[in-house]
From TrEMBL, chain A:
Principal location listed in the UniProt entry: membrane
Pfam families: BPD_transp_1 (PF00528)
Span of domain ABC transmembrane type-1: 82-280, 368-565
Membrane disposition: Multi-pass membrane protein
Record keywords, A-Z: Cell inner membrane, Cell membrane, Membrane, Transmembrane, Transmembrane helix, Transport
Source taxon at top rank: Bacteria
Taxonomic source organism: Maritalea porphyrae
Entry similarity comment: Belongs to the binding-protein-dependent transport system permease family.
Keyword Ligase: no
Protein name from the UniProt record: ABC transporter permease
UniProtKB/TrEMBL annotation, chain B:
Gene Ontology molecular functions: ATP binding
PANTHER family registered for this protein in UniProt: SPERMIDINE/PUTRESCINE IMPORT ATP-BINDING PROTEIN POTA, SPERMIDINE_PUTRESCINE IMPORT ATP-BINDING PROTEIN POTA
SMART domains: AAA
Family, as annotated: Belongs to the ABC transporter superfamily.
Record protein name field: ABC transporter ATP-binding protein
Organism: Maritalea porphyrae
Amino acid sequence: MDTTTQDAGGKPGIKRSLTDRIFPSLSGTALAAIFIATLLFGFLILPVAKVIYVAFLDPNSGALTLQNFGDFFSSSLFRESFFNSFYVSAMSVVLASVFALPLAYITSRFEFSGAMLIQSLGFIPLIMPPFVGAIAMQLLFGRNGSINLLLAQYGINIPFMEGLNGVILVQSVHYFPFILINLSTSLRNIDRSMEESAQNLGAHGLRLFRRVVFPLAAPGYLAGASLVFIKVFDDLGTPLLLNVNNMLAPQAYLRISSIGISDPMGYVISFILVAFSVFSLWASFLLMRGKDYATTQKGGGGLSRRKLSTRENIGAYGIVIAILLLVLSPHIALGLLAFGTIWSYSPLPDGYTLENFNTMFGQSGQYIKNTLIYAGAAAFLDIVLATAIAYIVLRTKIVGRKWLDYMATAALAVPGVVLGIGYLRTFNDFEVPFVGKPLASWWVIIVVALMIRRLPYALRACTAALQQVSQSLEEAAENLGATRSRTIRKVVIPLMSGGILAGFVTSFATAAVELSATIMLVSSDSDAPLAYGIYLFMQTPSGRGAGAALGILAVVIVAAGTMLAQCIIDRERKARTGEH
Amino acid sequence: MTHIKSKSGISVRDLHLSFGSTKVLTGVNLEIEPGEFFAFLGPSGSGKSTLLRAIAGFGPQPQGQILVGDRNLAGLPPWERNVGMVFQSYALWPHMSVRKNVAFGLVEKKVPTRLIDEKVEAALSLVGLLDYAERMPSQLSGGQQQRVALARTIVTKPDVLLLDEPLSNLDASLRVQMRRELLALQRKLGLTTIFVTHDQEEANTTADRMAVLDQGVVQQVGSPQTLYDHPENLFVAGFLGTANILAGELVRSNGSTRLMLETGEQLPIDNEATGTGSLVLRPQNISLSENSEASELNGVVSHREFLGAQVRYLVDVANTQIVVDQSHAVDQPILDIGFRVGLVINSKSAVFLPRGQKQHAA
């Protein structure tokens, strides 16, 4: 341990670097830590603190007050929005669980040949931004959508998409993989001996499931469920596109965009959103503490799987295909919309064409270009920051280094709307030199917002990558005379490259379809990214086809990114295990 | 609680088991006496754990019979066998306290709640962990987890106790202590026990009798001493302790027997047998003399290892290398490499295995 932590000051006999000479008491890593801390403070902590502060400020006198909260709860619209947001989030968790539980259970408990189908198709919803599928879902499930048109022959009309129902359906279809992934992982991590010892002591069937299997898998389920809850609670794009405005995030957006950044209600809502996010994360942390139940032993693994009889197999396939059809319906509908001519009051489009793509490419060149620039720049900055943070946290003894990690990860608890509002409020008066614009309306602020929002993803990838680099490899380099910075450049970063690349791709792909923060910060159409373009297209019925085509492009970008990241990770893993 | 006194022995009759098309156990026959401490010993992949799991009802369905007492277990699910098993990983449930872990089997057996507490506490005090009842498994050391796993099993009064490599997850010093405790507990309870291990020292020090397995076949059954002194085949001879195995032909002439080695040397052997086969010669049954001229057999020291109580020499005799252990006394000099020595064989302790009595193959 001690040998790797010689800090600051430089070692005798080795030429001191420039920074060492200027700041003799600070090493390069300490300077980097200070720089990153400043950056995170300026663009994450400060704007959010500002939002919270303003929520408690009397707009006229500037004095601290609780009056804004009184106003908020005395308004029936806001009370309703608050209740709706809560209701939609909770119901989305319930519905997402209904989708995820059977899939996770069937794949982990039985020898089911459709497991691969679930593994690959079950995660597809995540690669589509939820708001993209929202309009398409209207056309399938709406009052005059395909399903209800078909059901109308029997006099039935199911209000799948009416008001809040639509938001719940779209959100749960989109976010259920979070529960599926976490729950499947938990189930897979239960060692066979956990189950066998219970059988040996007389338990089987449902009792075995209730007393042993479920409690062991519960932490994974809760992790997934709390994630779904927060994501739905904070989401702006889906309710906005479905024109459901009586929820918290859309209200915040509408207040700020229509009344202006001095209206206190936007801030009160932001405070509530942040408080709920933090509370959910904290609650799930408390529930999970000391419950790392991964019990798999070396060699062994997973619960024993039972063979299904032919009839059970047909039943299982029936359930799986029904669920998969439902959760893939946004993609199907989006495809129909993008390739269809006119689709209105009929189960399927009247005809098929590529015209929408022509229109889309003709009108959205700017959006696509902006997206590539914004997401590319944000993802690049993310991996630079994430690599540095990971190194500082795992390999140095700098005081307070853990806080860098906490601060960067805290971005997860900050809804995009809130960050957007924070930037508007904080940087509106900050004139950028030579640009002649306030920082809040300069396009670079969008890059910064995306960077902050996606930093936790990149950080997780880089931390995992660095954890796999054995410290002895660095010690060997230092033993052979390499300085700290050369060791980092020549040994650490090359060995981390796979993880860094995966972090870049993940950040890029998800930043490319971000809507909630960017919608607040786009000051002119020429600065708008792709996600905002889809939003604009979808505002008019005639633009829907082209909007859907742009949506397809977004899906392709995210899908390609996800696959690429997965390939990189797999290749790394293979290379690593191949060495042994 | 402290007197289970198992009346059930275990009989395994003509057991065959395959994973798909791979045969894992072939024609296994065993009779384990009531109250016996019996070991399955073998290298990894020998089928010993598979056999144990088959008795508990885990893994693929075998052909043949498994009887506990006079109850045939074939076809019974694990939860109806009343066969207690302690898993290699202990398999304590991390979401339950020690008390709940131990109570688990009693709850499944619908024992009244009042009695459960009593029995759990009796079992925990039997393994010396009464004070740990409210802890979570993650707060216990490996040895303590092992004891909880034992308590959890014996509290349900199983007919027999199966231990799957119970000591392999403990560190070396604890292992010796635990195996003594395990044996003491088994004696106290009088519970028929099968102990699976790949470590011959563990088997030798605990088992009344043991079965040596290789490639899914029982090679030999007997007490540790019998198996060591009178191995029935080359596998058992080589697996238990160190042995020089010299292939050749026993020839009688002039009233004495000599072993004509395949490499050309001859050894005088005190043995009635004749024919081709292998001579099993333990290193401690050969002594070295510094006067090589007087010995019938001599060679050159090519390697030596000082082990404390003894010195192990490798002696090159023509093309054969022979391992010889010499006990060591204080300040006794150690022979140098390259030294020419005579070998004196205590041929009474040598075992001759005629060809054809090789390992039992599947």
